[in-house]
Write a structure and sequence with these properties.
The complex is a heterodimer of chains A (333) and B (275). Helices cover 52% and strands 10% of the residues of chain A. By secondary structure, chain A is of the alpha/beta class. Chain A has two domains: 63 residues; 215 residues, Undecaprenyl pyrophosphate synthetase. Chain A has a seven-stranded mixed sheet, covered by helices on one side. In chain A, helix 4 crosses helix 5. The longest helix of chain A has 58 residues. Chain A is globular and about 85 Å long. The N terminus of chain A is likely disordered. With 275 residues, chain B is of the alpha/beta class. Chain B has two domains: 191 residues, Undecaprenyl pyrophosphate synthetase (3-Layer(aba) Sandwich); 35 residues, no CATH class. Chain B has eleven helices and six strands. Chain B is globular and about 65 Å long. The C terminus of chain B is likely disordered. Classes of the chains: A alpha/beta (333), B alpha/beta (275). At the A-B interface, helix 3, helix 9, helix 10 and strand 7 of A face helix 1, helix 7, helix 8, helix 9 and helix 10 of B. Chain B: Keywords: Endoplasmic reticulum, Magnesium, Membrane, Transferase. Chain B: It is a peripheral membrane protein. Chain B: Forms an active dehydrodolichyl diphosphate synthase complex with NUS1. Chain B: One of its GO terms (biological process) is polyprenol biosynthetic process.
Chain lengths: 333, 275
Amino acid sequence: MSTESDLKSRVPPATKTPLDVSVSGLKKTVTQVMNTDVDDVLKRKNINTNQKFSGKIEYAIYKTLLIFLYVIYAITRYFQREYNRIAIKLLDLAYNPSNSPQLIRQDVNKLQKIPKRLAAILESKPEGDIGGGLPGLINDASDVVCWTVSAGIKHLILYDYDGKMKQNVHELRAGIHHKLAKYFGLDNVPKFAIKIPHTNQIFFDKDEDQKDLSPEKSTTKHKVAVEISLLSKVDGRDTILELTKTMADLCAKGQLKVEDVDTKLVNQELTQLVGHEPDLLLFFGPALDLQGFPPWHIRLTELYWETDNDQVSYYVFIRGLKQYADCKMNVGK
Amino acid sequence: MSDSGSFPGYNQFLEMVKTTLAKVIRSSDKVPQHVAFIMDGNRRFAKKNNMEVNEGHNAGFESMCRILELCYESGMKVATVFAFSIENFKRSTFEVNWLMELAKDKIKQISQHGELAEQYGIKVQIIGDRSLLPADVLKEVELAEEITMNNSRAVLNICFPYTGREEIVHSIQGIMKETAMGEIDYRDIDEQTIEDHLYTQGQPPVELLIRTSGVTRLSDFLLWQLSNRGCTIELVDCLWPEFTPFSMLKILIKFAFKKTYSPSNEEDDELKKKK
């Protein structure tokens, strides 16, 4: 019979008891093989499938509810975004400085206090887009520089994750010069200095000044309206890492004690390597992402960004300054 | 919240809705694994409602428990709360002492039998510069950690007394000690080594920060972790005791939606690499 041969082939050869083709015989064989009770196995399997099944239904219900929530969220979000975009456009029109430092100066003069050091996180948009790629990034950077100079802020940090501005510092310099000429007139373009703390380089607005002098000396020699620091990802965690390595090495050699390392010392070193902590950080994207901005340097920095905005526009700048002017600092109290 | 109790069963209904929604969010599989909270505004809440300051802090603590319940129910693994900054020692001695007492009470309460920690299987960790704590508080803290030591479902980091800069320095010091002992070579130190010496070692990266009461600073909280790319920062414009589980739900939905429907940076990078 076919069933008999089937069974024979299925039973593992290890069982030496002669086969009995009946339910009880089968039970016995299985018991021998697996050393467990068949009924028990069957029962457990049943429960398992039952549980799995109800679990699946529960999961399906939750998933459906989730999709439902997503739909509601997407709809409200859509209207919210459109509303924000319109508001942004109107604000942009209302605040438009039309390349005039006088208007910016007027806006800033209304404020109680202005930040001593300003930082901005810039992102380069995809190559194909309007205002994308490197030219777009340089254009954005020069805009921020012009507003900063007009507002009378002396220190500016420009941050981009990949360090594209650092790599193209000459183009950036030309771009800034061009924009400043547009704002202030060709005859009195404000002087500026571009610092790259990571490589310890400093560039001035004219080509011949390009020397690797120590920053303090050169900035006092040349009076500049604004000092621009270019930072990128390497100035953040990587710099702290390098510092740790150096300190660990010195410690292993016995030249530095663990007790001597404190917040003050680390702060001193990092200030030298990267610069001072900014008072205000502007982000021109739709939702704040610090993108690896030097962690040590954002301790008490005021953060400002505009929800759903994706442009480097003047009104973000001036509203950021306004927020800074209104904020109350009480460290710890 | 006080008058809502007048309807019989209303609170139970709310509770049910909350747990269901938590499960719904859990099913999205896009729940932030590590959430940080700056619970700002307890004192202002007390002032606004003509309460004593400690009543404000109590309200804040209750709010925290409600939010944490929701978070753990929706599948979050680690929560970090900023309880006391090293800078807070600058306040008057009276207030500092009083805050210490309060923290001692609350830490005891959380880890007690049948409370939050046991209910959700939470391991309580007190992170920060413990050497600044008074002896009696330290004892309580160690006790709480001991009681909850074997819980493994989730972790609650209580930053007490903590600052982000101190944490980085602490990590550097730890690495220095180990290099001096010859346990690690200074050339082998990388970002991971620093992370392994932070207070948050071995925990998933912080994906979401929530700060209430409209202050737009990090105030020296988790600086290393929060400046990382891809960490979402949510600033909510209400006082902490007024921050309800439903506002939290909204944030979680927003987070999950964003994770589901917009490609993350990592995927972008992968795409770029392929090209």
